[in-house]
Amino acid sequence: MNATDVEQLAGKAFDLISGAAARTQWFAKAFFFLAVITGVSGFVLGLIALSGSWRTIWLVVGGIGALVGIGAAFRSWRALTLVVEQGTELKSSVWSLVDNVGDNISNVLDGFDGDQKMGLMKQAKLTRALRSTVKDSLDQYKDVSLALAAIGSFPGVALTATFSIIFFSVFGVIFLIAAAF
């Protein structure tokens, strides 16, 4: 690969990583705040509405559920924030990585155009494909590896947080009705 090809490919790879991180960061933040609101309120309402051994069971099950939902959303939001904040360092690492394994990256990024609008899940899938393509070289590029992992794991985190939000919303309403009567 010549220098122009490396520059163009590195630009595409960095656009994918930084663009996906910026877009998913906002959603991860929203998931976090929704998980906190629904998790804490559903948990507290359960403690108010239940008594005896059911309260003890809710304390354990509800507490673990709230911690998992809130924790997953927080970790994702924090990791994506770090990716966005380290933009210039990440850019130089991506350029160096492309310089080393550019042909493999070229095959993955063939259909990606930095200007086109692509859904979050599609971008996450593309970053997972990119990560698996260059996995042998990622030991040298920890920041790129962490960025790709943070973006690629977002769909799973979104599913976990969504399940937690729905679970605690439903049980919160049930416990609110039970506490009212």
Q: Would you identify the regions where 5 or more consecutive residues have pLDDT less than 50?
A: none
What Rg do the Cα atoms give? 21 Å
The counted number of beta strands is 0
Strand content: under 5%
Q: What share of the residues lie within helices?
A: over 70%
Assembly type of the chains comes to single chain
The arrangement of helices and strands along the chain is HHHHHH
Question: What does this protein look like?
Answer:
This protein has 181 residues and is mainly α. The radius of gyration is 21 Å and the shape is elongated.
Describe the structure concisely for a colleague:
This protein is mainly alpha-helical.
Task: Supply database-style keywords.
181 residues, mainly alpha, 6 helices
Topology:
Elements: H1 3-49, H2 52-85, H3 87-108, H4 120-133, H5 142-152, H6 154-180
Helix pairs in contact: 1-2, 1-3, 1-4, 1-5, 1-6, 2-5, 2-6, 4-5
